[in-house]
Every structure is written in structure tokens, then in C-alpha cells.
Amino acid sequence: MSIRPILETRPAQPTMEGAGVKLHRAFGFQDPSELDPFLLFDDFRGERPSDYQAGFPWHPHRGIETITYVLAGSVEHGDSLGNSGTLDAGSVQWMTAGSGILHQEMPSGNAAGQMHGFQLWGNLPSSLKMTAPRYQDIRGAEIPEVVDDDGTRVKVITGAFWGKRGPVDGIAADPQYLDVTVPAGVKKTFRIDTYRRAFAYVFEGAGAFADASSPTGVRLEKEVMGQEVNMRDLSGNRTLIRFGTGDEVTVQAGEEGVRFLLISGAPIEEPVAWHGPIVMNTQEELRTAMRDLRNGTFLRPQH
User: Fold this and answer.
1) Tens of pLDDT along 243-263?
2) Per-residue model confidence as pLDDT tens digits over 203-215
3) Which of 61, 141, 221, 302 is most buried per CB count within 10 Å?
4) In what order do the strands lie in the sheet with 101-108?
5) CATH classification (class only), 6-265
6) Are 138 and 87 in contact (CB under 8 A)?
7) Cα(245)–Cα(285) distance, rounded to whole angstroms?
8) What residue ranges do the domains of the chain occupy?
9) Cβ neighbours, 10 Å, residue 134
């Protein structure tokens, strides 16, 4: 067993998207090989409707998948294929844009005016860039949750974990998407297949992740699984942790516990040509997508 080294930690940066939604971006529009097969990750949360109510009006996607996970409030969605619905708190939507889709997402707050959700973009391999679009809308009640003896709770959105399998299936990158809560003072180790690229996103509480390779950090213990390691203290306020190669991630929860997303996937390792919400393999394919948008041929007829 080998602990994954921490390659980088960084706070999510405030930005604005859609028609004026305030959010924090953990990564995106940078080096697409860093977290291949994942391209972008946004944390959109607000206490006031003015932070989010303008929403994300009609816009195109091609060549990617978008994964929306709602924790508080709701998101109404509609698309050019005639699909529509509402994602309530706890729900997940996994949208495979494939050959092309136009859609909109309009957030609403809960009774207290609060809205909180995440959106992750996953790349598609060249063989699936022009596949037919599809949706997987998953209600919170359908997402299995595993509770360990020490109180650790894991919601399994996709992939297999601790004997449970998430309800989202058929995804090209074979991802594992976990919502993890570790109680105060508990140290926990999670297995991740070595071939996957992996990151954690801490959004509540605080903790420290084991780092088997770096001499920096706060020394909390001498050994973890027979290895001398350091533990890096991390705030829970929107912190990204990017891991290197290995098969274990270890976290020590702080005094208030820690909650984070633990996400991994098989790298695609193909060229990336990227323009906003359209991600292809070549510049020529991007030009074709732009031409299709101008000519009204962006959407493939559905049968």
C-alpha cells in the first residue's frame, strides 16, 4: 500500500459565470492534463438570491459531460431536446453532452435563501465526442450512503466503494465520486485504484491529509501504514487537494470534523482543444462546432 503524495493544495478562486452567478472555481481553463479526465470544478453557493438567481441561461455543450450535485436549494433545468426538471437538495445530474446540446440551469434558494451545489466537467474520449446526448437524473434518496463504525459517512454517487455502487453508470472515465464526512478527531484511510487521477475538495470543517513525499507540513504522527509521513493542515473553506500516484488517501479530521468530495477517474490522455463549454481533440473540430452553431446544425437529430 502506498499513500498518494500531495502534489498541490490551492483555494478555489472567486469568479462569475452564467448571467452573473457568483461562485468559486477550484480548477478549470488551465492545464487539462493536471486532472485528466476532469476539466473544471465549480463550487456555487450563496446566502442571498442576488448571488445566484440570474442563473445559467441557454448555452451549448459538446464533447464533455457535466456533473451537477446540489446540496441546498434547487436547480431547474431545460434543454433543446425538450427535457426539463428540477434537481432538489441531495440530487445529482450527470449530463453527457456528446454531439451537442443547448441547455439552461436556473438555481433557486431554500426557505432561508441558501443555495449550494457543485459542477464538475468530465472529458469524453474521441470515440465518444459525438455520441448521442443523454441524462442521468438521480434523486438524493437513490444515492447509497455507507456509515462506518467510527461515524464516517460516505455517499457513493458513482463507482464502487465499501460494498456499495453509485447509481450513475456508463461513464467513459470510469469515475469514482464520493461525498465523505469524517467525524471530529477520526483518522481515516480511503483506497483509490492506482491508475486513477484523484483530487479532494474540502468544503466543510477542517482536517489534515497525509503526504508521503513532502517534508513540509505539520507533523502529527510518525507512521501511517508503516511509512513516515507528514500531515498537511487544511481549512475546509473551499480547498482543492491534488494527489499524485498511489492507492491510499489518509485524512485526520479536525475538532469540528471534515467533509470533502473525493473524486477520481481514469485519464484519457488525448489532445484537448477547448473553447468554453465545447471541448474537442483538434482545432479543426472546434471550428466545425463553431460553424455548426452559426449554421443551426449544432444539434444532431434525435430518433
Assistant:
1) 999 999 999 999 999 999 999
2) 999 999 998 654 4
3) 61
4) 56-61, 101-108, 74-79, 84-87
5) mainly beta
6) no
7) 32
8) 6-265
9) 15
The CA dihedral of 60, 66, 69, 70, to the nearest 10 degrees, is 0
Q: If phi over 0 gives left and psi between -120 and 50 gives alpha, with beta otherwise, what is residue 93?
A: beta
Cβ count within 10 A of residue 167:
15
Core vs surface per residue 88-111: b (16+ CB within 10 A) or e: ebbbbbbbbbbbbbbbbbbbebee
Number of H helices, E strands in the chain: 1, 26
Q: Report the 10 Å Cβ neighbour count for 169.
A: 10
- Around Cβ 269, how many Cβ atoms within 10 Å? 9
- Strand-pairing partners, residue 224, are 227
- Stated pTM of the model: 0.91
pLDDT for 93 equals: 92
Nearest to 280 by CA among 86, 20, 39: 39
- Rounded Cα–Cα distance for residues 9 and 242 (Å): 6
106: nearest Cα among 121, 90, 84, 91: 84
Q: What share of the chain is helix, strand, coil (3-state, %, to 5)?
A: 5, 55, 40
Mention every residue, 6+ apart, whose C-beta is less than 8 A from residue 78. 84, 103, 104
Tens of pLDDT, residue by residue over 138-159, are 999 999 999 999 999 999 999 9
